Amino acid sequence: MLYAFLCNLSKLYFKLFYRVSLQGVENVPKEGAIIFCSNHISLLDMFLFAPHLYPRKIHFMAKQELFKIPLLSGIIYALGAYPVNRGKGDINSAKTTLNLLNDGKAVGIFPEGTRRNKSKKKVKPKYGAILFALESGAPIVPVGIFGNYRLFSKLKVVYGKPVYLPYEPGDKVVKAEMQKMAEDLMEKIYSLNDYSND
Q: What is the pLDDT averaged over residues 16-34?
């Protein structure tokens, strides 16, 4: 109930204060485990693209510092987010991610690991999403967010077609190959700016 309310509130906010264009919503599977991977330009990213997929609930992996901010922590917890320690391998968040995927739920990950709102330079992505896809067999749905969050600006959200990795769960894949797949995935995300559903 609270999740539905927050989704509706988020959609209303963006409808009132931005010109939002959504493309490729039909590419998102309506059920089953999914890993959403998006570029990251603002803290508002999760509030922008997740509510438009309601009733699918996306559980975002978010930096643990956000959960120390009283009001914000309550909101993102209600939206299904869970903390991750970005400074080192976080076993607890990894277990949470795999448990969610094994339960057929959707998770959201920002492979860049940080926001790129000030610098336009590409960031070397982390391969965690690839690892989770390999372990769970879940497809990855690339999501591109383009524009800026200045009030009344244009924002475009593009949901790409699911990416299925050419491996079976449990297959051994070296780190270098996972890193290459992560970099290819980010290029796919960036290229969604040219997406057309015509």
A: 96
